[in-house]
Amino acid sequence: MIEIFLAFIGSICPGVIYNVEKRNLMWVGYCGMLGWIAYRAFNEITGSLVLASFFGAVVVGIYSESVARLLKHLPQYFQYRELFLWCRE
Fold first, then answer.
1. Rounded to two decimals, what is the model's pTM?
2. How far from the centroid of its chain's Cα atoms is residue 27's Cα?
3. Tally of structural domains, the chain
4. Domain range holding 51?
């Protein structure tokens, strides 16, 4: 549970640095949180870091595309900040 919260906060922090609008910070945080949940879940299921990273990135991509269409922004607005989370593993 703590990892999920830290993934949320860890996604919001680069959003603040890159001047994401305040109303969109929650969406950015949710994207990072969902990506981390998918990464950890697939890592537990498969035991492979490569497959877990792939499926986590797929979840981030699908989420960012759908939220970008909903909020009428570019998908990269939500996407790139979350992919930094897996660089530390």
1. 0.82
2. 9
3. 1
4. 2-88
